Amino acid sequence: MTSTAPQTATQHNVGRASIPVENPATGEVIAQVRNMAVAEVAELARRARVAQPAWEALGFDGRGRVLRRMQRWLMDNADKVITTISAETGKAYEDAQIAELSYGAAAFEFWAKKAPRYLADEKVRSKSIFVKGKRLMLRYRPIGLVGVIGPWNYPLTNSFGDCIPALAAGNAVILKPSEITPLTSLLLAQGLAECGLPDGVFAVATGSGDTGAAVIDEVDMVMFTGSTATGRKVGVRCAERLIPVSLELGGKDPMVVLADADVERASNHAAYYSMFNCGQTCISIERCYVEAPIYDDFVNRVTEKVRAIRQGVPAGPGSVDVGSLTFPPQVATVERHVQEACERGAKVLTGGQRGRDKGYWFEPTVLVDVDHDMACMREETFGPTLPIMKVKDVDEAIRLANDSEYGLSAAVFSRDLARATAVAKQLNAGAVTVNDAVINYLALELPMGGAKPGSGSGHRHGPGGIRKYCRQQSLLISRINPKRDIHMHPYTARRTRLLGRALAIFNRGLK
């Protein structure tokens, strides 16, 4: 089975329960998808292994043509893709357009173009006397069958998006999307089939956690995006199988606002990126540290902007600014963080309550008078909250920003670019922006990954973002071929002395 479109996802649910897919903004069940059994995943893997060699043999040009056709398909079907994403995630139309559709379109072109360069054979030079005159090469070969296990918050960007470089490298891929948001993956699988992707090369394995575990047991490498707790389990299972794994896990992204910052720009970024996708973004703004001289001004501006956010059921372009939460248990987590903070002395300046009767809602919320022992400052809230903390100076801001098990991203705001850059370099995060936030993720040339175990291991984007889906192969080709090399048996005193003199001369020359 290669792919199943959303509208036909229930046709094969014979003998096994299906999974309902809700619109989290309304609570309405909008589809049913198959909860695949272990044997079904094994069959997907068997078909993928049969199809992969021919896909690899197409070469970069052949694979690139399919990817570029898919880029055009994505833009031709933009409204359908955005509507599907919005319906199963509850996010605003523009959130899906900006962070998902635009990313996907750019990624197809990027990896089609960059794969030949990033995976080109490399000539290697060696100073070893024993390989003089020989040709040394480093090659990148597709790893074979890649399993991608995606999250629910970005079903295109952080789920399907990881499949694109894996396919560009010549792998077959099985994608296990979140059972909360599988419809986007199924729709894009349909697009790939229409764009000429050979049967069996790409498959979507819909289902629960057992389905994901079955994928791990069948593939040659795993790319997982999700919570730190689940990432640990995935890492253990991959270690047991001795297969490579790349993990993009949690974040608690700090924003440092220095006293000389452009307060209006900083407050716009804080309000927008803390609430973008209803706060369900790993690389966002999740906690603020603001130097005392501008603290009050910053808080007032952020509160005003957050209070003005229009939250509601997405109904097309321009209808709302922020939609609902996507994952039902997340509402309880957000509520717990806010209530606990208030019980310990924090103050809600706007928001702070659950929303509508139907769907999964929490109001855009600004918290002040917080301290660093509160869950809202230390745990991943993953919801529409922004706690803001006053600091006396930049050293305190850096110390508190680094006081976290996470290290995914961070942001620094200051008019003094040299000073801001110096601060950025002291933050323990895999990606840091200066006078900006989040938008760095769209620069696919720039690696993106965590700097601490809680945020995972491995990187997306850049050369490493496709090389991780490959095995390295070293080639040594002898161009001068005597019958026997000088160092071979039988050993003789004369040849040993000659070899010793040569080694001494050679190593003196290395100094």
Q: Would you kindly provide a written description of the structure presented here, covering whatever features stand out?
A:
This protein has 16 helices and 18 strands. It has a seven-stranded mixed β-sheet with strand order 12-13-14-11-10-15-16, with helices on both faces. A six-stranded mixed β-sheet has the order 7-6-5-8-9-17, with helices on both faces. Strand 6, helix 6 and strand 7 form a beta-alpha-beta unit. It is globular, with a radius of gyration of 26 Å. It starts with 17 loop residues before the first strand and ends with a helix. Keywords: Oxidoreductase. It comes from [Mycobacterium] vasticus. Belongs to the aldehyde dehydrogenase family. This is Aldehyde dehydrogenase.
C-alpha Rg, in Å?
26 Å
Annotated CATH topology of the largest domain: Aldehyde Dehydrogenase, Chain A, domain 1
Strand content: 15-25%
Q: Which strand order do you get reading across the main beta sheet?
A: 12-13-14-11-10-15-16
CATH architecture of the largest domain: 3-Layer(aba) Sandwich
Unreliable runs, pLDDT <50, ≥5 residues? 1-15
**Fraction of helical residues:** 40-55%
Query: How many domain modules?
Result: 2
The CATH fourth-level homologous superfamily of the largest domain: Aldehyde Dehydrogenase, Chain A, domain 1
- What can be said about the biggest beta sheet? 7 strands, mixed
CATH class descriptor name of the largest domain: Alpha Beta
Count of extended strands: 18
